[in-house]
Write a structure and sequence with these properties.
- The protein is of the alpha+beta class and 468 residues long.
- It folds into two domains: 192 residues, GAF domain (Beta-Lactamase), CATH 3.30.450.40; 254 residues, PPM-type phosphatase domain (Phosphatase 2c, domain 1, 4-Layer Sandwich).
- It contains ten helices and 15 strands.
- A five-stranded antiparallel β-sheet has the order 2-1-5-4-3, with helices on both faces. The protein has a five-stranded antiparallel β-sheet with strand order 6-15-14-11-12.
- About 8% of the residues have low confidence.
């Protein structure tokens, strides 16, 4: 080859490389512009249109098409010159072109297809009712390594418009196009994943709001069943504290007057969380009140409500405390399938004598303190309430004298979590109870102060309940 020819060939190569780099630069600029626009969901489609437009401009083509394919060679995206087709017609055209036409030949052979004159090349397939004449065609594989990303087909109405020089230019350009299209496809997948995450996030937020509303209903049920005031007894002070958890729980306390100038005192914790526990809390509270006050439930078959007619203070105590057994049997019989039960302390106080007669159904021991510290622990006298039918609950009695304070609590106190996930612990509570407190309300305030220093801003998942 003569020196001028070599020089001309080198100039042509450099010109093609420059054109290819310019195409890549334009496409990448457009990609960035599209990605920054508000219509992000159309980034890939818009870049495909721009790619076809730039390719046609570079080669002087009249029309063209661009197909993106997956690893199996199936078309995932397409830009057709014939935009006036229905989805069914579009699918048929793509199928025919990929089975019999030039694009299919390129897909199978993974190399450029140049048709100088469509009249003399069997690779060209005329489509039915084609509204324009095609004289020459050029189809270029867009490759990324060994992977076929897509096929660009360029058309012109005159034979001979596309030649080897144009083919070489498009082959070089296709490599740059591959980079831009791969970026756009990855971005499209990422954006699709992001939108899926946004949709999932929206669903979760909607569900969370609905759940919060249900939780608030549960909390309201719980609050509505707690006493708004405690019976005032001459010579006695009663104090309580209730701090609801983030989740609906089943803690409750109660204080109510009973026949014979007696006072019922209850502190309990229904197992489980959620609205179910709040509903069962209301049920337990109502049953204890009903059974201890000698009021029968219509339609409820629980033995023991009618076979004992109280006629003395001792009988009144029996009837009241028998409410724990009746409640246990009713829950076990009527709601055993739900597996709900409660730890429950029920005491009947005679304010005149200071005697507290009680049943402790699996609850945390109530603690009797005086200025010297812990005086007694009112431990469990029977199992948890509602788990099994016909359980026995022993009755115990303790004498409360002036200066004594009886404090009851739920496990939300001892199991209160710090930001470091450390429990408050029963040991720490007992240490606090060794400190003298002159009144029931001051004792609760003393515990509250230490408790919330421990908790700080840590979320709590169990109610904190105290009765003194």
């Amino acid at each position: 080859m003569k020196e001028p020819d070599k020089l001309q060939q080198e100039l042509s190569r450099l010109k093609n490389e420059k054109s290819a780099l310019q195409v890549q630069s334009r496409l990448l600029e457009n990609f960035v512009t599209f990605a920054r626009s508000s219509a992000k969901e159309h980034v890939l489609t818009r870049l495909l249109q721009k790619t076809l437009e730039v390719s046609a401009e570079l080669t002087g083509a009249d029309k063209g098409s661009l197909f993106l394919v997956d690893k199996k060679g199936a078309v995932t995206h397409s830009i057709l010159t014939r935009a006036d087709t229905t989805p069914e017609q579009r699918s048929k055209i793509i199928g025919q072109v990929f089975d019999e036409g030039l694009a299919g030949w390129v897909r199978r052979n993974r190399k450029l297809g140049l048709i100088v004159d469509t009249r003399d090349d069997k690779r060209w397939v005329s489509l039915p009712k084609q509204p324009y004449t095609v004289g020459s065609a050029l189809a270029v594989p867009v490759l990324r390594g060994d992977n076929l990303l897509g096929i660009i087909t360029l058309l012109h109405d005159k034979p001979g418009h596309f030649n080897q020089e144009t083919a070489n230019l498009m082959l070089l350009t296709a490599g740059q196009i591959a980079s831009a299209l791969e970026n756009a496809r990855l971005y499209s997948k990422l954006d699709e994943s992001y939108r899926s995450l946004e949709q999932a996030k929206h669903k979760i937020e909607t569900y969370s709001k609905a759940l919060d509303a249900e939780m608030e209903k549960g909390r309201k049920i719980q609050r509505d069943f707690l006493p708004t005031h405690i019976p005032e007894l001459p010579g006695w002070e009663t104090a309580f504290y209730f701090h609801p958890a983030r989740q609906v729980s089943g803690d409750f306390y109660d204080a109510f007057l009973l026949p014979g100038n007696l006072v019922g005192l209850v502190i309990a914790d229904v197992c489980d969380k959620g609205i179910g526990s709040a509903l069962f809390m209301a049920l337990f509270r109502s049953l204890i009140r009903v059974f201890s006050g000698q009021i029968n439930l219509q339609g409820v078959s629980v033995p023991g409500t009618d076979d004992h007619s109280p006629n003395s203070s001792g009988d009144q105590l029996y009837q009241a405390l028998h409410a724990v057994s009746l409640t246990n049997d009713y829950i076990a019989q009527a709601h055993g399938d739900e597996g709900m039960f409660a730890t429950l302390f029920f005491g009947v106080l005679d304010p005149n004598s200071g005697k507290l007669t009680y049943v402790n159904g699996g609850h945390e021991p109530l603690i009797l303190v005086n200025p010297s510290g812990v005086k007694a622990k009112l431990k469990a006298t029977g199992p948890v309430v509602g788990m099994m039918n016909h359980m026995e609950f022993a009755v115990k009695q303790v004498q409360i004298v002036p200066g004594d304070i009886l404090i009851g609590y739920t496990d939300g106190v001892t199991e209160a979590l710090s930001p470091q996930d450390k429990f408050f612990t029963k040991k720490r509570l007992l240490t606090l109870l060794e400190r003298p407190a002159r009144t029931a309300s001051k004792l609760i305030e003393q515990i509250k102060m230490e408790l919330f220093i421990h908790i700080d801003d840590a979320p709590q998942f169990d109610d904190i309940t105290m009765l003194a």
